Amino acid sequence: MSETLVDRETEVAELRGLLAAGRRRMALLYGRRRVGKTFLLAHAFSRAEAFYYTAAHTTAEVNRRQLLEDLARWSGQPVAAEDYPTWRSVFRLLLDFRAGERLVVILDEFQYLADDVGALASDLNAVWEERRAERPFLLVLSGSAVGTLEALDAGGAPLHGRLHWKHLLRPFDYYDAARMVPFRSLRDRVRAYGIFGGTPRYLAAVDARRPLAESVAAAALSPRGEVRIQVETALDQETGLREVSKYRAVLSAVAEGRTTFNEIAQRSGLEPDTGLRVRLERLMQLGFVEARRNLGAQRREPWRYRLADPAFVFHYGFVARLEAELERGDARRVFAKWVAPGLDAHLGLVFERIAEQAYYRLAPRRKLPTVREWGRWEGKDRHGEPVEVDIATLLTDGRVLTGAVKWNTRPVGPEVHAKHVADVGRLAESGVAWAHAALRPDAPLLYVLAGGATEAFRRAAAVGRRLVEVWTLKELY
Q1: How far is it, in rounded angstroms, from Cα 56 to Cα 111?
Q2: CB atoms within 10 A of CB 160
Q3: DSSP letter string over 108-120?
Q4: pLDDT score for 2
Q5: Can you tell me the distance from the alpha carbon of 412 to that of 435, in angstroms, rounded to the nearest whole number?
Q6: Mode of pairing for the β-strands spanning 289-292 and 304-307
Q7: Residues of the chain with pLDDT under 70
Q8: How many CB atoms lie within 10 A of CB 108?
Q9: pLDDT for the residue numbered 32
């Protein structure tokens, strides 16, 4: 394939290492749709050494016959479907098949091969346990039904303990998303991530050689845009989701800022019961929603939910709200009139997510302390006044890292540092335990400032602190 592989080099090396071991190995690769599982596997192995079959959402009989037909076509060897009437016989054929010195068998969308995935896995396990001569053979089970495939390795499952490699493939972070769409402007790299997220298929619709606004209008805003269509139908494509309209209602409620369980129930019109909890857990499992609490929150404090994928935040924040205008007018004009003016506010929240990702990426290189629990704090002080701390993070050495994240266009002055210290001080006076530790001289500070900081800011932040990190877009990229 001519396209460049981004970020997945470690996975490719590990998969190739399994085959190079010279023995039978089984691997499991799973993740949300469009995250690049097929792309990764296509880069890991050549067509000559790998037989690749993608199961269809149809009957087991249709899949069985199609797999055998594809195997015969790929290998050039006769394979009669009537000779392999069961999945156990098919698996035995695959494990014993000779098509060269090394063989990789990839069964993609494994969950579709048969209605009863547990029974299918049991048949595979029975054949896998049979004694046979060792040879370089790798069986890769892959698919997008995250919960179903994850359960294959659960305790008591037929394949538990049989896997030699298991990996959940996630979307790109901000940095690798920019490797896929390398705009010369660093701000446009942030904007692209804030609009399209880290899903490779969405990013593939962006042409970094042209103005970003053109890709946004054509792919994310237009009723015919491929990213808009993929986002709108993402839940429909997930296996095992019943009553998809209720899942959409949950996503819409969270996107509108209803972050607690009861607020989501009220806004979505769903009962605040076990059913809603199951839907939220399923959305989190699929990577659409995430749950957070304030740093140091008590167990009784409610979780706060938010959309995990920037592409969905953008879609519900702009596209869904502007649907009528987009149906009637040109997407480029809608972008200029309605989207562009509100984009900085949207990116301010995305930039906090980027700051967290950047810390994990840059910490080893800059020899920064390890994170135990990344977080933020939002609430009120003892006087009822609102307080918001962008970074409130517990480190493994017991210290507390705090700081601010600003999507600024001009260098910030010392007043930003002064406000941050004052806010943490208000929390300490209000009895927030971690805030006392955050005021100590050995407590690190982190400021992630898109537009940089003045020298006065840097001098003020350094007073009385042993470690102060100030990152601009140049440090992030």
Answers
A1: 9
A2: 14
A3: ETGGGS-S-HHHH
A4: 38
A5: 24
A6: antiparallel
A7: 1-3
A8: 19
A9: 87
Could you give all domains of the chain from N- to C-terminal order, each with its CATH number? 9-168 (3.40.50.300), 174-347 (1.10.10.10), 368-476 (3.40.1350)
Two structure tokens written together for 421: 């210290």
Place of tokens 């490797």: 179
Q: Which two tokens stand for residue 67?
A: 């797999």
Q: How far apart are CA 83 and CA 93, in angstroms?
A: 10
pTM of the model: 0.91
- Tokens in use for 447? 């400021």
- Distance between CA 243 and CA 250 in Å, rounded? 12
Q: What size, in residues, is the chain?
A: 477
Q: How far is CA 97 from the centre of its chain?
A: 36
At residue 1, the pLDDT reads 33
- The DSSP annotation for 169-196 comes to -----HHHHHHHS--SSHHHHHHHHHHH
Q: Are 263 and 253 in contact (CB under 8 A)?
A: yes
pLDDT of residue 3: 67
The tokens describing 398, both together, are 């017991």
d(CA 411, CA 404): 14
Three-class DSSP category at 1: coil
Structure tokens at 449: 């400032």
Phi-psi region of 464 (alpha: psi -120 to 50; beta: other; left: phi over 0): left
Strands (E), 68-210: 103-108, 137-143, 165-168
Residue 60 to residues 85, 110, 149, 433: CA-CA distances in angstroms?
A: 11, 11, 17, 58
